[in-house]
Design goal:
By secondary structure, this protein is α/β, with parallel strands linked by helices. The chain has 13 helices and 16 strands. Helix 3 runs parallel beside helix 4. The chain starts with a helix and ends with a strand.
């Protein structure tokens, strides 16, 4: 079991490298191991764009040596025909004797069928090893196929006394360089970043990945902007041809504003409005799920955070707390009542606490 766990950890690590690059497919890691010796014969992970899958890449690297070997895979091998043949066919053709799979794929086209086909072909199949870690890594895929939308990872920064902004117009710098680097890594592992128009206008962010060697991993940038108030002079609009930018709006948005943004390369999607004339969040996330997005990082303010919590649309929430305090002057509270209530409920648990330089990060996860 200890060797099995070691090889599964390697498969998970391989899969994590591709997070944010393989949608609409999950980023699956695979390792082929020679029984008895423990020699690694081949490794693979889902390629950018979602094809090829990790299993055939690992099997191709192993070649003829894969016959009689063990395959470790982070998600149940697919059993349906898509743009490529099923991974189960490749596994059976390679002569793999044993498959150790971390978690079943809830996709109705697979959902246990992959494991069943392998067993019917004479392969010994074991499931559930490191299930919790694999479920966390594949939460985007799982959420999309079971809920019809991407998994939402909400990130909020706050001062020691709980504020995300000061009382004045000046932008408040709360976190240090280590925490900022972690945020950029979260961005690199996301398919898209979502903010509201309030944050877009107040901060004029770029929402790109600015870590050495990962500049090309900047995800799709999305702005909730019900009335198309995003300025053509904003960084997001001016750089839309370099980094894909999508604005979700409503039919009430002015046509001239739409034309101005589209001329700069911004994509505009018109969605249903709620009774207040705002984009309906459940419909917005369903639209993103239909596009194939699986992992959505949100970096908006407390208003968007509370709206997501109120609509029960959060899978994970990371609160990054800096060392500074605003004191009696106060400012804008980082946590609204809906998010506070959600994190304190039985639906969430504290999954991780990290020290990031002078900052502390606490991540709460939805309990399956």
């Amino acid at each position: 079991m200890s060797d099995d766990a070691s090889f599964m950890r390697l498969a998970l690590a391989l899969g994590r490298r591709g997070l944010g690059t393989t949608w609409p497919n999950p980023s699956v890691g695979a390792v082929v191991v020679e029984p008895g010796t423990g020699r690694i014969l081949g490794t693979g992970a889902t390629a950018p764009g979602g094809r090829p899958h990790g299993e055939p890449l690992a099997l191709a690297e192993a070649g003829a040596a894969a016959r009689g070997a063990t395959l470790y895979v982070t998600l149940e091998p697919c059993s349906h025909h898509g743009r490529t043949p099923p991974c189960t066919d490749a596994i059976l053709a390679a002569g793999i004797a044993r498959v150790v799979s971390a978690v079943e794929d809830p996709d109705s086209r697979v959902a246990g069928r992959g494991h069943a086909l392998l067993r019917a072909g004479g392969v010994a199949v074991e499931t559930g090893l490191m299930r919790e870690a694999a479920s966390r890594d594949h939460v985007g895929h799982i959420t999309r196929v079971t809920r019809g939308r991407p998994a939402v990872h909400l990130k909020l920064a706050r001062t020691r006394d709980g504020f995300c902004a000061g009382a004045g117009p000046e932008r408040l710098r709360i976190t240090g360089p280590v925490a900022d680097g972690a945020v950029h890594l979260w961005r690199a592992h996301a398919d898209a970043i979502l903010i509201g128009i309030g944050t877009a206008r107040a901060d004029d962010p770029s929402l790109t990945v600015r870590l050495p060697g990962l500049g090309a991993r900047s995800p799709l940038r999305i702005v909730l902007d019900s009335h198309l108030m995003l300025s053509p002079a904003s960084v997001l609009a001016r750089t839309a041809r370099d980094t894909a930018t999508l604005v979700l709006t409503t039919r009430s948005a002015p046509a001239h504003a739409r034309r101005a943004l589209e001329a700069l390369g911004v994509e505009i999607a018109i969605l249903p409005a709620d009774v207040a004339g705002r984009v309906e969040l459940p419909n917005a996330l369903a639209h993103l799920g239909e596009r194939g997005l699986t992992r959505l990082c949100t970096e908006g303010g407390p208003r968007l955070a509370d709206a997501l919590a109120r609509a029960d649309l959060i899978e994970a929430c990371t609160l990054v707390t800096g060392p500074m305090e605003l004191g009696p002057a106060g400012g804008l509270k980082a946590l609204g009542p809906d998010l506070t209530g959600a994190l304190a409920s039985e639906s969430f648990r504290l999954a991780e606490r990290l020290q990031l330089g002078s900052d502390e990060a606490a991540t709460y996860e939805r309990i399956p």
